[in-house]
Amino acid sequence: MQTAIADMRRDGLHTNLNLDALTVAQIVDYASSTPCYWREDRSVQFLYRDRADVERRVGKSILLGRYFDIEERCEAVHAIAHDPALRHLATLYLGAEPGQIEARLWWSFATTGTSAERLKADQGFHYDLHDYRCIAFFFHLTPVDEFSGPHVYVKGSHRRKPVRMLLGASRQCSDDEMLRQYGAESVVALCGPAGFGFASDPFGYHKGAPPLRGDRLMLRVRYTINDDGSRSDRSPRTD
Q1: For 138-150, how does the pLDDT look when each residue is reduced to its tens digit (9 = 90+)?
Q2: What is the rounded CA–CA span in Å between residue 154 and residue 180?
């Protein structure tokens, strides 16, 4: 646990967190049998296997497919979100008991998209401002290599940002500027088999690389001290 905290303080990133094969299978089964939704139009809901047909129907690429109320609807995700070890690690890093837990499950599809669509889908470098302190745990539900949209994190960027990057009009940043500011050695693409997991500080620069071949299914569990009101994957029926 102390190694994990030291990694997070220094790099904003800690790997060596993994799900067992049964848990992965349960979540994949849920994702395969439950409609996800299109972020651009939440009324467009579809099963994973039908995505290409839906793209033809709406006449646009669908980069992401997200799931409503995943923590409440999938028992395996609920168990991960409330896992005592993850919560303990979050408490140590936050310096206080988490006041909000938010779980998100989504597909990143290997499809075409404009630069603007990629940025809107968080497929360009950016940092998040959910609370003054935050930690997120990510888990691959499908194997991820350099061609299937790995999560990319810039080590150390959670504690080192030039004033111009903090006070700019956008929290986004180009790949070239990332390399100039932090160096290639700080940019880590997180590849691994299904079940591979890692923790990161979302205040550091990160992105989901666009999948070139093979869709990616990812689970994120985020802990914050305060409720920032950003639980956007709530269904229309839920307050």
Answers
A1: 999 999 999 999 9
A2: 12
